[in-house]
Amino acid sequence: MGDEMKNSICVTLGNNIKKYRKLRGFTQEKLAEELGVEIKSLSLIETGNCFVSAKTLNKLSQTLNVSPSDLLEDANCSNCERLYQDAQKALELLKENPAKLKALNYILNGLL
Asked: Domain extents for the chain?
């Protein structure tokens, strides 16, 4: 994955987290507390300067009551269908086996 695409995904993810956080009435402080992360980390994620682990993405989607694909969706993205399919595959892996979660997290960290 190229840097430009990675940055685009990070910005999209951050914007969507911020949008859904506000729609659900969460402050950054409250959402960070729910996720078990520092406010600074959440701020970096929301500004597109930091990506999240698969575990945190799953926690975010549960806490904000949206699907992970909703958090990754970009209305202007030509690759949305592929991103959606990738997110669906990742979720299936997470459901099947906790060891796969660890492997997926390792792979994602390697890409970023």
From this structure: 3-111
Residue 24 is given by DSSP the state T
Within 10 A of 26 (CB to CB), how many other CB atoms are there? 19
- Measure the CA–CA gap between 96 and 42, rounded to whole angstroms: 28
Measured over the CA atoms of residue 40, residue 41, residue 42 and residue 46, the dihedral's sign is positive
Alpha helix stretches (DSSP H) within the chain? 3-23, 28-35, 39-46, 54-64, 68-72, 80-96, 98-111
DSSP label of 11 = H
Report the range out of 31-35, 53-57, 93-97, 102-106 with the highest average pLDDT.
31-35
Q: According to the CATH classification, is domain 3-111 in 1.10.260.40?
A: yes
Q: State pTM to two decimals.
A: 0.64
CA atoms within 13 Å, Cβ hemisphere of 37: 20
Contact criterion met (CB below 8 Å) for 74 and 12: yes
